[in-house]
Amino acid sequence: MCNQLLFGEAVKILKKQNATWLKVESLYDGYIGWVTHHLITIVDGVTALQPCQTLAPHFLNKVVYNNQSMHVPLGSSLRNFKNKKGDIAGIAYSFTGRPVDTTLVDNKVETLLQQAFLWLNAPYMWGGKTILGVDCSGFCQTVYKLVGARIARDAWQQATQGKLVRSLKTAKPGDLAFFDEKDKIVHVGILLGPNEIIHASGKVRIDKIDRSGIINTDTGERTHTLKLIRRFNY
Predict the structure, then answer these.
(1) What percent of the chain has pLDDT above 90?
(2) Separation in Å, CA 226 to CA 153, 180, 182, 210
(3) Domain limits at 85?
(4) Are 109 and 222 contained in the same domain?
């Protein structure tokens, strides 16, 4: 698995492989991968391209459709949602919780950090984007999504976005720090300040950071080499 699509996210179908597989491109971040056909419901292009700022607020959220319950993860898109009811791909659903409206988030840096802390100790899983398993860039992308900031999927892609921050001393909480190995970006995390970072490495954890890189708080071992820092508009 290289990535996950969350409930309500739209894709463009690029290719069909026999009766089972579809090659698709995420309309959220342009990521390309393969899914089985039963995971996709066909809609028109205008519907698929409609932005959605209403997101599921909890790690697991109970959505009801056809009098059946379905649990969808944090950051899922609640499309056409109003007065606890919505419609996605022509299917009516209800959700009784209070969704996240990213257009109404006031202090976005504070909210971003609050969301990040909730992920502590979530297990690492390559390609994951949920509390049940998440990788470093998936963690950053999903947390940023919850404050209305759209960033790319992989760490090396994220490292090409935003504004370059010249040094760790001038970095601010919420900036993304990137780490390399043999001149290739291999890791990313969210800075909490000039000395701490929250990132997914084995699990979502808080470690020390200096101008050379990350130092594991538990062992004192240097685990990642700092390459650059980026700041994003919310």
Answers:
(1) 97
(2) 19, 7, 12, 8
(3) 11-101
(4) yes
